[in-house]
Amino acid sequence: MxxxxxxxxxxxxxxxxxxxxGLKTLKKIEELHxxxxxxxxxxxxxxxxxxxxxxxxxxxxxxxxxxxxxxxLGAIGAPTVPDxxxxxxxxxxxxxxxxxxINLRPIKLLRGLNSPLRYKAHDDxxxxxxxxxxxxxxxxxxxxLHENTPFELAVQNNVFTRYGSxxxxxxxxxLAEKRPKRRLTAATKSNGINHxxxxxxxxxxxxxxxxxxxxxxxxxxxxxxxxxxxxxxxLDVVVGSNLFGDILTDLGAAIVGGLGLAPSGNINPEKNYxxxxxxxxGSAPDIAGKGIANPIAQIWSISLMMEHLGFSDIGDLIVxxxxxxxxxxxxxxxxxxxxxxxxxxxxxIHQQMTKMSMNSI
Length: 361
Ligand code: NAI
Ligand code: MG
Known about the structure:
Keywords: Oxidoreductase. By secondary structure, this protein is of the alpha/beta class. It has helices at about 15-35, 45-55, 60-65, 85-95, 160-180, 195-210, 220-230, 240-255, 295-310, 310-330, 340-360; strands at about 1-10, 35-40, 70-75, 100-110, 125-130, 140-145, 155, 185-190, 215-220, 235-240, 265, 275-280. Helix content is about 40%, strand content about 20%. The chain has a 10-stranded mixed beta sheet, sandwiched between helices. The protein has a two-stranded antiparallel ribbon with strand order 6-7. Helix 6 links the parallel strand 8 (about 185-190) and strand 9. Helix 1 packs parallel to helix 11 (about 340-360), helix 5 (about 160-180) packs across helix 6 and helix 9 packs antiparallel against helix 10 (about 310-330). 1,4-dihydronicotinamide adenine dinucleotide (NAI) binds next to helix 4.
């Protein structure tokens, strides 16, 4: 029997609603596999916690999380707490303290779904975005001066280190080595951002020299955004800085069915610390409490988690089960045009996992 400890942080808004389905996925994996056991501790660190305690997590929150094998996150953010507090005091400290320097985001059009790009086939939409997750534009360096005066100002510094850039670019290349198209596309803006971006491009070229089999393209982010729409079939592994990766992946999610489906892994490849798996979407205050959030992003994030833990067969089973339910078109949430609840959609996927497990596990 293999044991894995999981820290679950459901968070705010639809976070707890989709997390409830994710926890059922874990139960289903235990039931079907027999050789896996999860011990799960749930933490109520969210915006309500902040309103009560003045912080998003306890002083020793990171120490508490450190010894878990993985962290599973729902979504964080509520209208009652400014977003820069909820994100900066919970998600970003976890990503940084645990050196989760890879933010891995598959952009894949599942069978049974249509893309808003009506001229593209399923196989045209299957790539991965590797986003730098610890520095870049989301650095805490800068400040505000002369606040509340006519000459107030704000400075936010971008931070690109050789160490930080090299490790994410190396990871992206090694991923490209394992994928069929053997292509790497790097996002830049070296025409407008004239210090950090030429530095980033240099490192892409340097690391690329060690991967002569991989075709490398370096595109300006504005052009690349357009290519996501016009030429997605040419993309295989896309690597970008923290901000560029963040923006590109919402666009990526939109071309493969929407935010309700898009998962992500915040990965520490060395496994010195826990990695964290979560949907890309936020807490969706507009639909929170209605029980209609799409649980696929959360459930798919568990597929990424299983792959990380060395069980890619179970990861594949989860994605195939989701696809099968989408193909059958009997059950889906309103974001996909259906009328079902989060719970009903989750239940259909878990039943499908049982059906398909005969062949897969
Ligand atoms: P959002 O992702 O919460 O919502 C954007 C739109 O997508 C909304 O119309 C929402 O209803 C829809 N949507 C998102 N997830 C869905 C799902 N599973 N099923 C069906 N529809 C879904 O982004 P928004 O509105 O910009 O942010 C809301 C809050 O979430 C903010 O406080 C923000 O800071 C936070 N946020 C947190 C993230 C995280 O926890 N990692 C990531 C992004 C935003
Ligand atoms: Mg985002």
